[in-house]
Design a protein that fits this description.
The protein has three helices and six strands. The longest helix has 19 residues. The protein has a four-stranded mixed beta sheet with strand order 3-1-5-4, covered by helices on one side. The chain is α+β, with helices and mostly antiparallel strands.
């Protein structure tokens, strides 16, 4: 029932974005375990079939670094260690204008999903990402492997 409500809310939010074209500020996190594997998540709403980086919105007055650590903890119960900014990106997907700060960190332990937003969370080797990894996530992995962002487009 909760997953269905989140899907409906997401559809309504997307309609609003197409009309209002809001500017939003968010974060994404590349969290690596001790084996160098990357944490990816699948949501219960939106593009639920795709694996993506964890993340979310920056709250009003919140520092981006704090938002990254908070979102990772809320979604996966993992504590970000050595959190550092990797790059800034922008996108106009779904009608909104997003500014995304991408952070990298290390984590210890296994993820525990929040039971609200996430359907699944797992670690993957960078050379063995699932076939249904989002194109944007694949671009961020390529940026990471290159050692720097290839541009500012998400």
């Amino acid at each position: 029932m909760r997953a269905q409500a989140l899907r409906i809310a997401h559809q309504l939010r997307r309609l609003y974005w197409r009309i209002a074209k809001p500017v939003r500020y968010g974060v994404k996190v590349m969290a690596f375990n001790h084996a160098g594997q990357l944490l990816l998540v699948r949501h219960v709403y939106g593009s639920a079939h795709l694996w993506m980086l964890p993340g979310g919105a920056i709250d009003r007055g919140e520092a981006a670094e704090h938002a990254a650590a908070r979102e990772l903890m809320e979604e996966t119960a993992l504590d970000a260690k050595a959190l550092r900014l990797f790059g800034h990106y922008t996108t106009v997907a779904e009608g909104k204008r997003d500014h995304i700060a991408l952070f990298a960190c290390t984590v210890e332990g296994a993820p525990r999903i929040d039971q609200r937003e996430l359907a699944e969370a797992r670690f993957f080797a960078l050379d063995a990402l699932p076939a249904d990894t989002s194109p944007a996530t694949r671009r961020r992995v390529a940026d990471w492997q290159a050692g720097q962002p290839a541009g500012s487009a998400w």
